[in-house]
Specification:
By secondary structure, the protein is mainly β. It is built from 5 helices and 39 strands. The longest helix is centred in the middle third of the chain and has 13 residues. It is globular.
């Protein structure tokens, strides 16, 4: 039998014992994307992995890490952890580490803190990413929170001077083993070479962090398919790094935003204002088309605002908040995939004040991991005086006039829903391979009719009326796939393929009267015009 190497369990670090000879090294990934970094003593010695979560509650869980290291000079060696190179026959394959080309050095002093700063990894195409220092007032309190538990043993709470002032060199994303053997890995390597995404040369060339962020903000893709829509047809899509992507009716794109690095996940237009919600619970408004912004209200800092709607004088704001619930049932079968998945609090607020000062909780749904199996994410939609939101796999409806909530899920559960604002037809999708189902309702979800489903893997179904619909699905091959679109054919109660998206281009359909959009890996945007894909925005 193959002898497997044993991994010794790391001894817990005791600050009082280590402070006389060690320093505390802290690093944060406020935008996520970082699990650990590996550092090495400049004078030679064993590599050390900084992967212990730090108590920085102002950041999302596991976005800040720290470790006590012997005093001395170190250099950053790897992004990630260099793991055993042989993939075991059981369990998931190891994720390879990536060499840090710059070899940045820093000092560690006994009884003091070394702050490596706030770092953001950015994929620049070509199987490469760069690391960008992103100091911002939003993150100012995270280090102070992290060192509170060890403050009593520190000689000096002032951080050891260290500043990463430049964007890192390009770091290669290593190919991950499939765990299926040499032949499968070689096939994957060939596919990786043939389908290599284009490289953003301008981003790689930009070494100044401010210039890099300026370029990046101009190409960050939309995050939601429910934009704010002005009377003239102009659309504002929420995006990352505090941005809105603006699309004019003739297909011209531009960017505007606010002073935050957070994701903007929802935006609404009403009464001459844009109102935007971010993933840290802030609601901001602009009366000048996004040139300037003022804060209206702040919900909990761990609440991600995922939807904002307004109609007939009523504001609706929906948020989600992840949390660990040790008592949440985990289930089995399909639900086994949800093990380790955080529970979610989904909150719906309503109010009538124009400044949103009177927002009050209308309903809170607590979603255990078992409630999230098959769920494609929370989505809220307002139509005909009713608000629909998918809380886990259960579709909920709020009647604005009465304030009453009702569960209207067809069958046992669904993965996603859509409502056509013109016809009021509601479509509900349960996306589970051969067990997938599509239901439609023409009476606000009171009664449902099951119709034929597109081929799986189904991503989106939008019924514009009882006999007209659009769908998208991922046609998966051995190591890649293609996005396909389908049209509903009522005479057959089935779906016909209507087209394909360009390679690796993510589809988005906003409404029947607008072009289907497609977001390429290089951040370019294509629109489907008269059956042909045309470039609306080029990021190259």
């Amino acid at each position: 039998m193959l002898a497997l190497p044993a991994t010794a369990k790391e001894k817990p670090q005791v600050p009082a014992e280590l402070a006389p000879t060690h320093g505390y090294v802290y690093v944060a990934f406020p935008k996520g994307g970082g699990e650990a970094i590996t550092v090495a003593p400049v004078a030679g010695g064993k590599d050390v992995v900084i992967d212990t979560p730090a108590a920085a509650t102002s950041l999302p869980a596991a976005h800040a890490f720290a470790k006590w290291l012997p005093a001395g000079r170190y250099k950053i060696k790897l992004w990630g952890v260099l793991k055993w190179p042989i993939t075991p026959a059981f369990g998931p394959p190891d994720k390879p580490a990536s060499d840090w080309p710059d070899g940045l050095e820093f000092d560690v002093q006994a009884g003091r803190v070394t702050d490596l700063g706030d770092l953001m990894p950015v994929n620049v195409g070509g199987y490469q990413f760069v690391v960008v220092p992103v100091p911002h007032p939003e993150h100012a309190g995270s280090l102070a929170e992290a060192i509170k538990p060890i403050a009593a043993v520190l000689k000096d709470s002032t951080p050891v001077p260290y500043t990463m002032t430049s964007v890192s060199g390009a770091i290669t994303i290593q190919q991950q083993s499939t765990g299926l053997g040499l032949i499968a890995d070689l096939l994957l390597a060939h596919d990786r070479k043939v389908n290599k995404p284009s490289t953003q040369d301008a981003l790689i060339a930009a070494k100044d962090p401010k210039e890099f962020l300026r370029l990046l903000r101009g190409i960050t893709p939309p995050l939601q398919d429910e934009p704010a829509r002005l009377d003239d047809g102009t659309l504002y899509f929420p995006a990352d790094l505090g941005q809105l992507r603006k699309r004019t009716p003739d297909g011209q794109w531009s960017s505007l935003g606010m002073d935050t690095l957070r994701q903007i996940l929802a935006v609404e237009y009403a009464n001459g204002r844009l109102v935007a919600g971010s993933d840290d619970g802030h609601l901001r408004a602009s009366r000048d088309g996004g040139a300037t912004w003022a804060e209206l209200k702040a919900l909990g800092r761990l609440e991600s605002i995922i939807d904002i709607d307004h109609a007939d004088g009523t504001w609706i704001v929906t948020s989600t908040e992840k949390f660990e619930d040790s008592k949440a049932p985990r289930g089995n079968g399909l639900v086994a995939a949800a093990r380790g998945t955080p529970s979610v609090r989904l909150r719906v607020y309503t109010g009538r004040s124009d400044d949103l000062a009177d927002l009050a909780l209308s309903k809170e749904f607590v979603l255990a991991p078992k409630d999230q199996a098959g769920w494609l994410g929370a989505r809220g939609q307002l139509a005909g005086g009713r608000y629909y939101v998918l809380a886990g796999t259960a579709l909920q409806r709020l009647d604005l006039a009465s304030g009453q909530w009702k569960t209207i899920t067809p069958g046992a559960r669904i993965s996603s829903h859509r409502i056509d604002p013109t016809t009021g037809v509601v479509s509900a999708l349960w996306s589970q391979g051969a067990f997938s189902k599509v239901h439609i309702s023409s009476d606000h979800g009171d009664t449902w009719t099951q119709i034929g489903r597109p081929p799986y893997i189904i991503h989106d179904v939008q019924m514009d009326s009882a006999d007209r619909g659009w769908a998208s699905r991922w046609n998966m091959n051995a190591f890649s796939g293609v996005w396909e679109t389908y049209t509903f054919v009522p005479a057959k109660n089935d779906w016909d393929k209507s087209g394909e998206a360009p390679f690796n281009c993510r589809l988005m359909r906003i409404a029947p009267d607008l072009p289907v959009l497609c977001f390429a890996p290089d951040a370019s945007i294509l629109g489907l015009h008269d059956g042909k894909w045309e470039a609306e925005f080029s990021a190259l």
